[in-house]
Amino acid sequence: MAVNVVMPKLGLTMVSGKIVEWKKNEGEQINEKEIVMVIETEKVTYEVESPGTGILHIIVAPDVEAPVSDVVGVLAESKEEYDKIVAGGAPVTAAAPAPAPAAAPAGGAPAAAPAVETTAGPGERVKISPLAKKIAEESKLDITKIKGTGPGGRIVREDVNKYTEQAKAAPATAPAAAPAAPAEGDRLVKLTGMRKVIARKMLESKVQAAQAYMSNTVDATKIQEYRQVLMPYIEKKSGVRITVTDLMMKITGAAIAAHPVINTRWTDEGVLWIKDVHMGMAMALDDGLIVPVIRDINQKTMTQIAKDRVALIDKGRKGKLTPDEMKGSTFTLSAMGMFGIEQFIAIINQPENAILGVAAIIDKPVVMNGQIVIRPMMNVMLTYDHRTIDGAKAGLFMVTLKSFIENPIMVIA
After folding, report:
1. Interior CA angle at 14 toward 33 and 192, to 5°?
2. pTM, entire model
3. Domain 3-86 carries which CATH code?
Protein backbone atom coordinates (compact mmCIF):
# COMPACT_ATOMS: atom_id res chain seq x y z
CA MET A 1 0.00 0.00 0.00
CA ALA A 2 1.26 3.49 -0.83
CA VAL A 3 2.42 5.92 1.85
CA ASN A 4 1.68 9.63 1.85
CA VAL A 5 4.45 12.18 2.40
CA VAL A 6 2.97 15.13 4.27
CA MET A 7 4.13 18.60 5.25
CA PRO A 8 5.32 18.09 8.85
CA LYS A 9 4.49 20.31 11.80
CA LEU A 10 7.90 21.20 13.24
CA GLY A 11 6.87 23.77 15.81
CA LEU A 12 3.91 24.93 17.82
CA THR A 13 3.37 27.99 15.64
CA MET A 14 4.05 26.40 12.25
CA VAL A 15 1.06 26.47 9.91
CA SER A 16 2.75 25.90 6.54
CA GLY A 17 6.10 25.22 4.93
CA LYS A 18 7.73 25.69 1.57
CA ILE A 19 9.38 22.79 -0.22
CA VAL A 20 12.90 23.94 -1.09
CA GLU A 21 13.96 20.76 -2.86
CA TRP A 22 13.17 17.09 -3.28
CA LYS A 23 16.17 14.87 -2.59
CA LYS A 24 14.89 12.26 -5.04
CA ASN A 25 13.58 12.78 -8.55
CA GLU A 26 10.09 11.85 -9.72
CA GLY A 27 9.85 8.09 -10.13
CA GLU A 28 12.97 7.27 -8.13
CA GLN A 29 13.11 4.68 -5.37
CA ILE A 30 13.63 5.91 -1.81
CA ASN A 31 14.12 3.98 1.40
CA GLU A 32 12.54 4.64 4.77
CA LYS A 33 14.48 7.17 6.90
CA GLU A 34 16.34 8.56 3.87
CA ILE A 35 16.04 12.33 3.43
CA VAL A 36 13.15 12.81 1.01
CA MET A 37 12.82 16.61 0.95
CA VAL A 38 14.06 19.89 2.40
CA ILE A 39 11.47 22.35 3.63
CA GLU A 40 11.71 25.97 4.68
CA THR A 41 9.78 27.67 7.46
CA GLU A 42 10.64 31.07 8.89
CA LYS A 43 14.45 31.26 8.94
CA VAL A 44 15.29 27.57 8.92
CA THR A 45 15.54 24.78 6.39
CA TYR A 46 14.77 21.31 7.66
CA GLU A 47 15.50 17.89 6.21
CA VAL A 48 12.50 15.55 6.32
CA GLU A 49 12.95 11.79 6.47
CA SER A 50 10.96 9.47 4.26
CA PRO A 51 8.05 7.83 6.13
CA GLY A 52 8.44 4.64 4.15
CA THR A 53 10.04 2.84 1.23
CA GLY A 54 8.70 3.18 -2.29
CA ILE A 55 8.71 4.97 -5.64
CA LEU A 56 8.33 8.73 -5.24
CA HIS A 57 5.52 10.63 -6.93
CA ILE A 58 5.84 14.37 -6.33
CA ILE A 59 2.60 16.30 -5.87
CA VAL A 60 3.84 19.69 -4.63
CA ALA A 61 6.72 21.10 -6.66
CA PRO A 62 9.74 22.99 -5.23
CA ASP A 63 9.22 26.64 -4.24
CA VAL A 64 5.55 25.94 -3.49
CA GLU A 65 4.14 26.40 0.02
CA ALA A 66 1.82 23.82 1.56
CA PRO A 67 -0.20 23.80 4.80
CA VAL A 68 0.88 21.54 7.65
CA SER A 69 -0.40 17.94 7.20
CA ASP A 70 -1.14 18.42 3.49
CA VAL A 71 -0.05 15.53 1.26
CA VAL A 72 2.92 16.71 -0.82
CA GLY A 73 4.03 13.41 -2.28
CA VAL A 74 3.29 9.68 -2.41
CA LEU A 75 5.49 6.60 -2.07
CA ALA A 76 4.12 3.82 -4.29
CA GLU A 77 4.79 0.24 -3.27
CA SER A 78 5.20 -1.01 -6.82
CA LYS A 79 5.65 0.24 -10.38
CA GLU A 80 2.05 -0.71 -11.16
CA GLU A 81 0.77 1.30 -8.21
CA TYR A 82 3.01 4.23 -9.17
CA ASP A 83 1.68 4.25 -12.75
CA LYS A 84 -1.88 4.23 -11.43
CA ILE A 85 -1.21 7.16 -9.07
CA VAL A 86 0.49 9.23 -11.76
CA ALA A 87 -2.33 8.53 -14.20
CA GLY A 88 -4.81 9.94 -11.70
CA GLY A 89 -6.22 6.74 -10.29
CA ALA A 90 -8.17 6.33 -7.06
CA PRO A 91 -7.01 8.31 -4.02
CA VAL A 92 -4.37 6.59 -1.93
CA THR A 93 -4.78 5.95 1.79
CA ALA A 94 -1.59 6.37 3.75
CA ALA A 95 -0.28 3.06 5.08
CA ALA A 96 2.07 4.63 7.65
CA PRO A 97 2.22 7.80 9.73
CA ALA A 98 4.40 10.71 8.76
CA PRO A 99 7.96 10.75 10.17
CA ALA A 100 8.51 12.32 13.57
CA PRO A 101 8.12 15.14 14.35
CA ALA A 102 5.72 15.43 11.45
CA ALA A 103 1.99 15.55 12.04
CA ALA A 104 -0.22 12.72 10.79
CA PRO A 105 -1.61 13.16 7.28
CA ALA A 106 -5.00 14.77 6.94
CA GLY A 107 -7.71 12.13 6.91
CA GLY A 108 -8.95 11.14 3.48
CA ALA A 109 -6.60 13.48 1.66
CA PRO A 110 -6.12 12.31 -1.91
CA ALA A 111 -2.59 11.40 -2.90
CA ALA A 112 -3.06 12.02 -6.58
CA ALA A 113 -2.47 15.61 -7.61
CA PRO A 114 -5.62 17.54 -8.48
CA ALA A 115 -5.78 19.03 -11.93
CA VAL A 116 -4.81 22.66 -12.22
CA GLU A 117 -6.84 24.62 -14.73
CA THR A 118 -4.63 27.26 -16.25
CA THR A 119 -5.07 29.84 -18.96
CA ALA A 120 -2.65 29.18 -21.81
CA GLY A 121 -3.81 31.94 -24.11
CA PRO A 122 -6.90 33.91 -25.15
CA GLY A 123 -9.91 31.63 -24.78
CA GLU A 124 -7.76 28.57 -24.02
CA ARG A 125 -7.92 26.67 -20.71
CA VAL A 126 -5.79 23.61 -20.12
CA LYS A 127 -6.08 20.97 -17.39
CA ILE A 128 -2.65 19.99 -16.13
CA SER A 129 -1.25 18.41 -12.97
CA PRO A 130 0.92 20.67 -10.74
CA LEU A 131 4.05 18.61 -11.38
CA ALA A 132 3.50 18.53 -15.15
CA LYS A 133 2.92 22.29 -15.10
CA LYS A 134 6.16 22.83 -13.19
CA ILE A 135 8.17 20.69 -15.61
CA ALA A 136 6.61 22.40 -18.63
CA GLU A 137 7.35 25.88 -17.25
CA GLU A 138 10.97 24.98 -16.50
CA SER A 139 11.38 23.62 -20.03
CA LYS A 140 9.52 26.63 -21.51
CA LEU A 141 7.03 24.36 -23.30
CA ASP A 142 3.78 25.47 -24.89
CA ILE A 143 1.26 23.36 -22.93
CA THR A 144 -1.47 23.95 -25.54
CA LYS A 145 0.51 21.68 -27.88
CA ILE A 146 0.73 18.81 -25.39
CA LYS A 147 -1.94 16.11 -25.55
CA GLY A 148 -3.20 15.06 -22.14
CA THR A 149 -3.81 11.39 -21.40
CA GLY A 150 -4.90 11.73 -17.77
CA PRO A 151 -8.50 11.70 -16.47
CA GLY A 152 -10.64 14.25 -18.29
CA GLY A 153 -7.82 14.89 -20.74
CA ARG A 154 -5.52 16.52 -18.17
CA ILE A 155 -1.81 16.66 -18.89
CA VAL A 156 0.35 14.51 -16.59
CA ARG A 157 4.11 14.17 -16.22
CA GLU A 158 4.40 11.38 -18.81
CA ASP A 159 2.69 13.58 -21.40
CA VAL A 160 5.23 16.35 -20.88
CA ASN A 161 8.16 13.91 -21.01
CA LYS A 162 6.80 12.30 -24.20
CA TYR A 163 6.33 15.69 -25.84
CA THR A 164 9.89 16.67 -24.90
CA GLU A 165 11.33 13.45 -26.33
CA GLN A 166 9.41 13.91 -29.58
CA ALA A 167 10.63 17.50 -29.86
CA LYS A 168 14.23 16.34 -29.41
CA ALA A 169 13.81 13.68 -32.07
CA ALA A 170 12.34 16.14 -34.60
CA PRO A 171 14.76 17.85 -37.03
CA ALA A 172 15.99 21.15 -35.70
CA THR A 173 14.74 24.19 -37.59
CA ALA A 174 17.65 26.32 -36.48
CA PRO A 175 20.98 25.67 -34.78
CA ALA A 176 20.67 25.91 -31.03
CA ALA A 177 22.95 28.18 -29.11
CA ALA A 178 25.65 26.27 -27.27
CA PRO A 179 25.22 26.36 -23.51
CA ALA A 180 27.85 28.16 -21.48
CA ALA A 181 30.37 25.63 -20.19
CA PRO A 182 32.83 25.99 -17.28
CA ALA A 183 36.47 26.24 -18.14
CA GLU A 184 38.73 23.28 -17.49
CA GLY A 185 39.15 22.82 -13.75
CA ASP A 186 36.03 24.81 -12.87
CA ARG A 187 33.11 23.11 -11.18
CA LEU A 188 29.48 24.06 -10.65
CA VAL A 189 28.02 23.13 -7.26
CA LYS A 190 24.24 22.93 -7.08
CA LEU A 191 22.68 25.34 -4.60
CA THR A 192 21.43 23.67 -1.44
CA GLY A 193 18.14 24.61 0.18
CA MET A 194 20.01 26.26 3.05
CA ARG A 195 22.18 28.34 0.69
CA LYS A 196 19.08 29.53 -1.19
CA VAL A 197 17.46 30.64 2.07
CA ILE A 198 20.63 32.42 3.24
CA ALA A 199 20.96 34.22 -0.09
CA ARG A 200 17.34 35.36 -0.03
CA LYS A 201 17.40 36.47 3.61
CA MET A 202 20.66 38.39 3.30
CA LEU A 203 19.53 40.18 0.14
CA GLU A 204 16.17 41.03 1.72
CA SER A 205 17.96 42.47 4.75
CA LYS A 206 20.20 44.73 2.66
CA VAL A 207 17.27 45.91 0.54
CA GLN A 208 14.64 46.36 3.25
CA ALA A 209 16.62 47.96 6.10
CA ALA A 210 18.46 51.30 6.24
CA GLN A 211 21.60 49.71 7.64
CA ALA A 212 24.09 51.97 9.40
CA TYR A 213 27.25 51.04 11.30
CA MET A 214 29.12 52.02 14.47
CA SER A 215 32.21 50.45 16.01
CA ASN A 216 34.36 50.71 19.10
CA THR A 217 37.54 49.06 20.32
CA VAL A 218 37.38 47.98 23.94
CA ASP A 219 39.79 46.67 26.55
CA ALA A 220 39.05 42.98 27.10
CA THR A 221 41.32 42.52 30.13
CA LYS A 222 38.54 42.15 32.69
CA ILE A 223 36.36 39.92 30.55
CA GLN A 224 39.28 37.52 30.11
CA GLU A 225 39.98 37.59 33.84
CA TYR A 226 36.35 36.87 34.69
CA ARG A 227 36.30 33.95 32.28
CA GLN A 228 39.35 32.43 33.97
CA VAL A 229 37.72 32.79 37.37
CA LEU A 230 34.32 31.41 36.32
CA MET A 231 35.52 28.65 34.00
CA PRO A 232 36.56 25.98 36.56
CA TYR A 233 33.48 26.63 38.70
CA ILE A 234 31.01 26.38 35.81
CA GLU A 235 32.79 23.41 34.24
CA LYS A 236 32.70 21.49 37.53
CA LYS A 237 29.05 22.38 38.10
CA SER A 238 27.66 21.78 34.61
CA GLY A 239 30.32 20.03 32.55
CA VAL A 240 30.58 22.88 30.00
CA ARG A 241 33.34 25.44 29.47
CA ILE A 242 32.36 29.09 29.52
CA THR A 243 33.54 31.14 26.52
CA VAL A 244 34.05 34.81 25.75
CA THR A 245 30.96 34.55 23.55
CA ASP A 246 28.89 33.46 26.56
CA LEU A 247 30.09 36.50 28.51
CA MET A 248 29.49 38.80 25.55
CA MET A 249 25.92 37.57 25.09
CA LYS A 250 25.18 38.19 28.77
CA ILE A 251 26.82 41.63 28.72
CA THR A 252 25.13 42.63 25.45
CA GLY A 253 21.75 41.57 26.79
CA ALA A 254 22.25 43.82 29.81
CA ALA A 255 23.24 46.76 27.57
CA ILE A 256 20.13 46.21 25.44
CA ALA A 257 17.96 46.26 28.57
CA ALA A 258 19.43 49.66 29.38
CA HIS A 259 18.66 50.88 25.84
CA PRO A 260 15.40 49.14 24.78
CA VAL A 261 15.27 50.94 21.42
CA ILE A 262 17.86 48.40 20.28
CA ASN A 263 15.31 45.64 21.00
CA THR A 264 12.69 46.92 18.57
CA ARG A 265 11.27 45.89 15.20
CA TRP A 266 10.15 48.03 12.30
CA THR A 267 6.66 47.16 11.02
CA ASP A 268 4.32 48.78 8.53
CA GLU A 269 1.97 49.65 11.40
CA GLY A 270 4.64 51.16 13.66
CA VAL A 271 7.66 50.34 15.80
CA LEU A 272 7.27 47.23 17.95
CA TRP A 273 9.01 47.50 21.35
CA ILE A 274 9.81 44.03 22.69
CA LYS A 275 10.06 43.59 26.45
CA ASP A 276 12.23 40.45 26.66
CA VAL A 277 15.67 40.02 25.10
CA HIS A 278 16.03 36.80 23.11
CA MET A 279 19.61 36.49 21.89
CA GLY A 280 20.25 35.05 18.43
CA MET A 281 23.60 33.28 18.22
CA ALA A 282 25.05 33.19 14.70
CA MET A 283 26.51 29.74 14.08
CA ALA A 284 28.45 28.50 11.06
CA LEU A 285 27.86 25.05 9.58
CA ASP A 286 29.73 23.37 6.74
CA ASP A 287 27.02 24.34 4.25
CA GLY A 288 25.75 27.62 5.66
CA LEU A 289 24.73 29.75 8.63
CA ILE A 290 22.01 29.30 11.22
CA VAL A 291 20.90 31.43 14.17
CA PRO A 292 19.61 29.44 17.15
CA VAL A 293 18.11 31.48 19.98
CA ILE A 294 18.84 31.71 23.71
CA ARG A 295 15.63 33.07 25.18
CA ASP A 296 15.35 35.53 28.05
CA ILE A 297 19.10 36.05 28.13
CA ASN A 298 18.86 38.60 30.96
CA GLN A 299 17.04 36.13 33.21
CA LYS A 300 19.74 33.45 32.93
CA THR A 301 22.94 32.81 34.84
CA MET A 302 26.28 32.36 33.10
CA THR A 303 25.97 28.62 33.72
CA GLN A 304 22.56 28.49 32.04
CA ILE A 305 23.79 30.52 29.07
CA ALA A 306 26.82 28.25 28.58
CA LYS A 307 24.65 25.11 28.80
CA ASP A 308 22.11 26.52 26.34
CA ARG A 309 24.87 27.46 23.89
CA VAL A 310 26.45 24.00 24.00
CA ALA A 311 23.08 22.26 23.58
CA LEU A 312 22.05 24.44 20.62
CA ILE A 313 25.41 24.04 18.90
CA ASP A 314 25.24 20.26 19.31
CA LYS A 315 21.72 20.11 17.86
CA GLY A 316 22.70 22.49 15.05
CA ARG A 317 25.64 20.34 13.97
CA LYS A 318 23.40 17.27 13.94
CA GLY A 319 20.66 19.08 12.00
CA LYS A 320 18.21 18.57 14.87
CA LEU A 321 17.23 22.17 15.61
CA THR A 322 13.50 22.83 15.37
CA PRO A 323 11.96 26.02 13.95
CA ASP A 324 10.92 27.03 17.48
CA GLU A 325 14.61 27.03 18.47
CA MET A 326 15.46 29.19 15.46
CA LYS A 327 12.81 31.89 15.67
CA GLY A 328 11.84 34.74 17.95
CA SER A 329 15.27 36.31 18.39
CA THR A 330 15.17 40.06 19.09
CA PHE A 331 18.90 40.73 18.64
CA THR A 332 21.76 38.69 17.20
CA LEU A 333 25.41 38.43 18.21
CA SER A 334 27.92 37.17 15.66
CA ALA A 335 31.39 36.26 16.99
CA MET A 336 34.39 35.76 14.70
CA GLY A 337 37.15 35.80 17.29
CA MET A 338 37.97 32.13 16.74
CA PHE A 339 39.22 33.06 13.24
CA GLY A 340 41.41 35.92 14.44
CA ILE A 341 39.27 38.48 12.58
CA GLU A 342 40.09 42.00 13.79
CA GLN A 343 36.93 43.73 12.52
CA PHE A 344 33.87 42.86 10.45
CA ILE A 345 30.41 44.16 9.59
CA ALA A 346 27.47 41.81 10.13
CA ILE A 347 24.17 41.98 8.21
CA ILE A 348 21.00 42.46 10.27
CA ASN A 349 19.08 39.27 10.90
CA GLN A 350 15.58 40.29 9.78
CA PRO A 351 13.15 41.21 11.28
CA GLU A 352 15.48 42.44 14.04
CA ASN A 353 16.72 46.02 14.11
CA ALA A 354 20.36 45.42 15.05
CA ILE A 355 23.22 42.91 15.19
CA LEU A 356 26.59 43.02 16.95
CA GLY A 357 29.79 41.74 15.36
CA VAL A 358 32.38 40.67 17.95
CA ALA A 359 35.95 40.32 16.67
CA ALA A 360 39.03 38.62 18.09
CA ILE A 361 40.85 39.73 21.24
CA ILE A 362 44.31 40.83 20.10
CA ASP A 363 47.19 42.24 22.12
CA LYS A 364 47.88 45.78 20.93
CA PRO A 365 49.88 48.79 22.09
CA VAL A 366 47.64 51.43 23.66
CA VAL A 367 48.25 54.63 25.62
CA MET A 368 47.22 54.50 29.29
CA ASN A 369 48.08 57.27 31.73
CA GLY A 370 50.55 58.70 29.25
CA GLN A 371 52.36 55.37 28.84
CA ILE A 372 52.37 52.90 25.95
CA VAL A 373 51.29 49.49 27.24
CA ILE A 374 50.17 46.20 25.68
CA ARG A 375 46.51 45.37 26.32
CA PRO A 376 44.11 42.72 24.94
CA MET A 377 41.82 44.77 22.70
CA MET A 378 38.59 43.73 20.98
CA ASN A 379 36.54 45.44 18.28
CA VAL A 380 32.75 45.43 18.49
CA MET A 381 30.73 46.59 15.46
CA LEU A 382 27.03 47.46 15.66
CA THR A 383 24.88 47.28 12.53
CA TYR A 384 21.50 48.95 13.10
CA ASP A 385 18.40 49.95 11.17
CA HIS A 386 18.43 53.74 10.99
CA ARG A 387 14.70 53.80 10.28
CA THR A 388 14.12 53.02 13.95
CA ILE A 389 17.41 53.61 15.77
CA ASP A 390 18.97 57.07 15.51
CA GLY A 391 22.73 57.47 15.55
CA ALA A 392 22.71 59.14 18.97
CA LYS A 393 20.72 56.25 20.46
CA ALA A 394 23.09 53.72 18.91
CA GLY A 395 26.02 55.71 20.28
CA LEU A 396 24.62 55.63 23.82
CA PHE A 397 24.15 51.87 23.55
CA MET A 398 27.78 51.47 22.46
CA VAL A 399 28.98 53.58 25.41
CA THR A 400 27.09 51.34 27.83
CA LEU A 401 28.33 48.20 26.09
CA LYS A 402 31.95 49.35 26.36
CA SER A 403 31.47 50.15 30.05
CA PHE A 404 30.01 46.70 30.75
CA ILE A 405 32.74 44.87 28.80
CA GLU A 406 35.49 46.73 30.61
CA ASN A 407 33.72 46.32 33.98
CA PRO A 408 31.79 43.04 33.75
CA ILE A 409 31.19 42.95 37.49
CA MET A 410 28.38 45.45 36.78
CA VAL A 411 26.51 42.68 34.94
CA ILE A 412 27.76 39.36 36.25
CA ALA A 413 27.87 40.00 40.02
Report:
1. 50
2. 0.70
3. 2.40.50.100
